[in-house]
Structure formats: structure tokens, C-alpha cells
Amino acid sequence: MDPHEVVEFAPKNDIVVFPGARTATDLIAAWKTCAGFVKIFLCGPQGGPSYIRALKLPFPQVPLIATGGVDQRTAGDFILNGATVRENRPRAKGWRVTTMTNKLVMVFGLSVLGTIHPLPAAEGVYEIGPKQSFEVTNTERVPFAPGGTIRLNNSYGYLTVEGWDEPEVEIAVIKSTDSFHEPSQQERAEQPFAQVRVVTERRSDKELAISTILPGRNRFLPKARRGVTVEYRIHVPRDSRLVVHHDNGYVWVSDMTGDLDVRSHTGDMIVMLPDPGLYSIDARTRMGSVSSDFTGKSLNRLSQFLVGTHFDYASQTPKRRIYLRMGRGSIEIKQDLPYGPVEKQ
């Protein structure tokens, strides 16, 4: 049965339905069904509350329900990072709030209250405070003229790159623990943060490199991260040429008008291309899918145990080159109107 039909049928028959998603690509497909919420599966193994936060960055309008790794100790962190049951989206025509929906919201609200205000009989469990993840944020701004080349090397985790009209590059790096700790362990838990360094190097007036340097490089542990998850929020002049070498995780690129060369080893990649535009697009995965709003030639290919997809598109007079590569995962290419000027805060 078509998912859109399920979402349309359910509320008319007093049935609550939440499309499920695991990746950013899944989330887009689920949101297109006009459902009220999207349920994110397996949050724990994918980063816990930080995974919800990373998804909320490009999709702030999508209400997310987190599952997997959510309990009384962690529910508060998930809510603070964007998990919600509140509805703020216009409903599809004919949608109505059902009794069952209201009951579900009441149950969720009571469970949250139980998390924030435990019953007296259970107070002993919380004497040392609920476990939590810790994070530190560093922001750097580098003057950089439009039209240059910006390279991101060896990044991992959650990477968001957005174009803006400022003659500078803004790099916000959020490092967080990928596990939960008692509040008393905060200093010890944050010690590995210093071992994962993000370094900015101006190679010339027209080239800027942003590199992630990791510890423990050896034959058996080539990219040790020591329990540190990294989230990058980067703004660059929108007509820059962008070159990204990402290891694994999530990549989002939007509102850029220069050439793009984006490669990732494992994860999900979403590229929002301003429309209209004259593009030459070459997107390929070794194992995974490529979807695009542009009408081009797509070819599924089989090569020694791996099944991938190759997508080609070229306008009549292409001016921009879009080169995308993914090892294991998905690529989604979306058409979007330019967001307009993005101002620094």
C-alpha cells in the first residue's frame, strides 16, 4: 500500500500513524506523506540526542519522535535537542485531530514529567543526577573573498555547509561525547575533545583549507576518535568552489552557486541546488542509491559484491560542475529556490 494512502486513511479512521525514518533521505520521504510527525529509529547507535540535533538543523520544521536509546535518564536530552510531539505544520486537507492522537500526546507528556520530576520512591536513583552527554562549541571567522576554493579535509560526523553573502568563512565546531556520563564525570569525559582538532589553513588568498586532525593514527587504528562526535556548521561565500572529503556521517550542502566536489565514505548526503541553474551533475554510490529532482540518466550497477547507482545530468549549456561520490550510503539532489541573503548573527 502506498505510504501516502496509509497516512491519509489513518486519521479518518481514528488511527495514529507516524512514518518511520532512519536517515535524512528517509526523513524527506516520510515528511512528503504529510504526516504530523516522523519517527526516527535507532537513535542510540547513531549518536543519541546529537543525531536528533543534526537532523533538526536542515529540517527545523519537521517534528521528530525519537526511538532507540530513549529512557527516563535520556528523554530530557532528546527533548532539549529537538525531539518533540508538538505539531506546528499545516495539515493536509481533511486532516483532523483524533481522540487517539490526544491520548498519545497526554501519555508522552506524563512520561516527560516523570522524567523531570521523579516519584519520591525513586529519588534515590537520581542522587548523583541523570547521565548526560557533554559538548563544547568553538566558533572561528576567517576573512575570505568570494570566488575562491574552500576545502574540507577528513571531516566526520555531521557536516552542514551553507552559502551566504558575507566575505568571510564562519566555522562552528561542536564536539560532544558519544556516550552518557554522570555529571561528576564531566571534566574527565571532555578530556578527549582536545585530541580531535579542527585546523584552518589559508593556503593563498583564493584557497582555504579546514582540516580535522585525529589522534592514534597507526596500522590498526587509523582514525581513532576516542569517543568524540563532531558537528560542523559552516557558512561560506555562496559562489565559492567547495571541495569536501568526508569520512562518515551526514553531509548537507545548500545555497551554493559555485562548483561542488563532495565525497564521503559512508553515510547520507543531501545537496540542495538553487533553481534555476545550469548544471552538469555526476553522482555515484558504490553501494546505495542516488535520487534527484533533476531528470537525468540513472544506472544501477553491480560490481564485485557491491550494488551502486550512477546518475548523470547535464543542461544544454552547463556552467556549474556538481561531482558527488558516496561509498556506502545515499545521495539526494534537490532543487530549491535560493534562500536569499544569510546574515551572520
Tell me what you see in this structure.
With 345 residues, this protein is of the alpha/beta class. 16% of the residues lie in helices and 42% in strands. The strands form two sheets. Strands 4, 5, 6, 7, 8, 9, 10, 11, 12, 13, 14 and 15 form a twelve-stranded mixed beta sheet that branches. It starts with a helix and ends in a 9-residue tail after the last strand. Residues 85-127 and 338-343 have low confidence and may be disordered.
Any descriptors?
345 residues, alpha/beta, twelve-stranded mixed β-sheet, 15 strands, globular, disordered C terminus
Quick synopsis:
By secondary structure, the chain is of the alpha/beta class.
Enumerate the spans where pLDDT stays under 50 for 5 or more consecutive residues. 85-127, 338-343
Roughly what fraction of the amino acids lie in strands? 35-45%
Give the termini distance in whole angstroms.
Answer: 46 Å
H/I helix tally:
6
Q: What is the CA-atom radius of gyration, in angstroms?
A: 22 Å
How would you describe the shape?
A: globular
Q: Report the structural category.
A: alpha/beta
Quote the average pLDDT: 77
Topology:
Layout: H1 3-12, E1 20-21, H2 24-31, E2 38-40, H3 49-56, E3 64-66, H4 75-80, H5 99-116, E4 135-143, E5 149-164, E6 168-177, H6 186-189, E7 197-204, E8 207-213, E9 228-237, E10 241-254, E11 260-274, E12 279-292, E13 297-303, E14 306-314, E15 320-336
Parallel strand pairs: 1-2, 2-3, 5-8, 5-9, 5-10, 10-11, 11-15, 12-15
Antiparallel strand pairs: 4-6, 6-9, 7-8, 12-14, 13-14
